[in-house]
Amino acid sequence: MIKDELRKIMNDVYGQSENPIRFFQAPGRVNLIGEHIDYNGGYVFPAAIDKFSTVAIRKRDDDLIKLYATDLKYVVEANINELEKYKNLKWGNYQLGVIEQLMKKGISVGGAEFIFNDLVPLGSGLSSSAAIEVVTAYAMTELYGHNIDKIEIALICQKAEHEYVGVKCGIMDQFASAMGKKGNAILLDTDTLEYEYIPVKLDKYSIVISNTNKKRSLGESKYNERRSECEKALADMQNKFPEKKNLCDFSYKEFLLCKDEIKDEKCKKRAEHAVCENLRVLDSVKSLRKNDILSFCKYLNLSHISLRDLYEVSCKELDILVESAWMQKDVLGSRMTGAGFGGCTVSIVKTESVEEFINDISKVYYEIMGYDASFYVCNISDGVKEI
Ligand code: GLA
Fold first, then answer.
1. For 358-373, what is each residue's pLDDT tens digit?
2. Can you list the domains of the chain with their CATH numbers?
3. Among 86, 138, 259, 263, which residue's beta carbon has the most beta carbons within 10 A?
4. H helices of 47-171, where?
5. Count of helices and strands (H, E) across the chain
6. Could you say which of 38, 118, 173, 249 is catalytic?
7. How far apart are CA 91 and CA 77, in angstroms?
8. 44: which strand partners?
9. What is the whole-number distance in angstroms between the Cα of residue 168 and the centre of ligand 1?
C-alpha cells in the first residue's frame, strides 16, 4: 500500500516525529479537445486521469520546507521566509512556487516535510507539473487547517507557474487536476470559469494514451511565443471588433470579416485555429451528449489537423502516432493532447482491439524513430483529495 511505503520513507529520510503524517493525491489530465485556447477565453474539455502525484506530508515545528521524491532521492531544503531565493532549482521549484503564492495570498502556512511519489510521466503533456502544484497547495492548506475552495487552489497554482516557473499557462491543467470527477470530462469556459461535468461513456471504446517519449526542450519558450502571437492577432482583429476581449469570442463569420486586419500571416493562422477549435469543442460535446461517439471523434481528428497545420505545435513524433492511429480500422479518433512539441496523443480505440492497436503502432513508431513509444489505457478519475 502506497501509504505504508511513503510513511516508511518519511521516517527514514527525515526521522521520526510526534506530528502526524497525512496523504494526498492529485491527478494528471488528458485534454480530450480544446487545445491552446485556455488562454484565449475558449472552452476546453479535459479529464483527470488515473496517474497521480501522491504526497505524504507532516508539519515541522520550524520554518523549513523539505522536499524529497521517491525517484530522485535527495532532499531540497528551503526556508519558508526566503522562497524567492530558490527559483532556479532543477527540482522543487513547482512546490516552492506554490507555497510562496499561498503566503502572498495571506494564507498562513509553516514548515513541512514532504515525500513525493510522482507517477504522471514528466514532460509528457499529461500535466505532471499541475499535479505536483495542486497536490502541494492542497496538502499544505489542509495541513494548516484551511479549507480553500479547489478552484482557488487551481488559480493559485497557475499563478505560481507564471511567476515562479515562467510559463504563461492557461488554467486548464490545474483546474482539471483540482476539480476532476470520476467518469466525467469537464466542459470549462476558461473566460468565466463556469464548468459542467459531462459523463464520458464510450460504450465499446477506450481512451488510449500514446507517449512519444520525446522530451520537450523548446516547448516552454514556444508556448509563450504562441501566446503572444494570439495577442497580436487579437489586437489587429479588435480594429473591427473593439468590444471583443478574447479570440474565442469571435464566431467564424466574424473572424472572416476581420481576418485581413491581421498583419502577420503566422498570427492569422493562430487566430483561425483558436476560433475554430473553440467551436469544435462545443460541437463535439453536443455529439457526446447524444452518444454519437463517431462524430465526437471526427472533431478530435480535425483538432489535430488544425494544431499541426495552423497552430504548428505538433511534431514528427506526434504526427506518426496520430496518423498511424487514423489508419487503424478500430480507431475512431486520435489527436495530440497538451501543449505539443512532443508528449502524448489521445486515441479512442475499440476496447477489444486495444492490444492490436498497441502492437501495430509500436512497430511503426519504432521503425521510423528507432526508439519506443509507450501506451496506456486511461480511466477518468477524481481530482485532488486526501487518501
Ligand atoms: C499546457 C498548458 C495549458 C494549455 C495546454 C494547451 O498544458 O499548461 O494551460 O494551454 O498546454 O492546450
1. 999 999 999 999 999 9
2. 2-199 (3.30.230.10)
3. 138
4. 93-104, 128-143, 150-160
5. 11, 13
6. 173
7. 11
8. 188
9. 9
